[in-house]
Amino acid sequence: MRRRWWSLAAAALLSMGALVVPASPAMAAPTFKVPFPCNQSWTGQTRTNHSPPYSIDFNRTDDLGDPVVASAPGTVDRVTDLGGTSYGKYVRIDHGGGYTTYYAHLNGFNVSVGQSVGYGKVIGWVGSTGGSTGPHLHYEQRLNGNDIQIRFNGALALYWGSKTYTSDNGCSGSTTGSGTVNTAGANLTVRSGPGTGYDAVGTVADGTRVTIYCQTTGTSVTGTYGTSNIWDRIGSGRYIADAYVHTGYDGFIPNVPRC
Ligand SMILES: [Zn+2]
Q: Whole-model pTM?
């Protein structure tokens, strides 16, 4: 309900011509990828008696100890060992916008809480910890804490049944972009979201080289490079207006995901 309330509030404000942007508007889902390294094929099983119901259990031959990778850029916010129950050893990644992913029954961890991860980053290894009867990866996507139907590259997973998923996670080697801030002198304000109505959370100096993890649309801004509604995510909860960033491209940067 909270999300609905915000979007109604936003519509009301926009219709009044106000320039206020709500603090937590709905954001596009991250582009999630299969949570295994580039080109690997895994069988993903969904079933109605799974908990939570939209989870996928992944397997392949001799999979014990195989690496598990982040399905999208984000910040690791849980690295937890529940012992012999439930998820056992699991990792949760916060992708922003209310989206999280879970990776459970791991054999071991390769990340720590607070760590920023990108596509293809190994976060742990397939195991059989917790309430598991054999090696597999239990994987979930959640929005605002609720289990959601899983999508890879925007395509809905098979509900219900088993399907082979082939990973393109981290294949290109450069799923981040880069750019140089050009304001002709002033510091550029960093916002908590893709718009001028979001909180200012810092600044970057003119001439700073930035890594761009994903791009999305937001408030139109007129800057050094003309008028654009593209915003660049340069960190967790950190966005800058692309109109002030020299990326070498007029629009979206090829290979950089949408946020
Ligand atoms: Zn499971």
A: 0.62
Mean pLDDT of 34-47: 96
CA distances from 15 to 3, 47, 214, 220, 236 (A): 18, 44, 29, 17, 31
Q: What integer is the mean pLDDT of 21-47?
A: 81
Query: DSSP states of 49-66 as a string?
Result: TSSSTT-EEEE-TT-TT-
Rounded Cα distance, 1 and 195, in Å: 23
pLDDT at position 27: 59
**Separation of CA 198 and ligand 1 centre (Å):** 38
**Residue 127 to residues 74, 83, 136, 140, Cα–Cα distance (Å):** 23, 13, 6, 16
CA of 153 to the centre of ligand 1 (A): 21
Say how many Å lie between the CA of residue 56 and the centre of ligand 1.
6
| Residue 22 clears pLDDT 90, i.e. is over it | no
How far away, in angstroms, is 205 Cα from ligand 1 center? Answer: 46
Q: How far is the CA of 88 from the centre of ligand 1 (A)?
A: 11
The Å distance, Cα 138 to ligand 1 centre, comes to 4
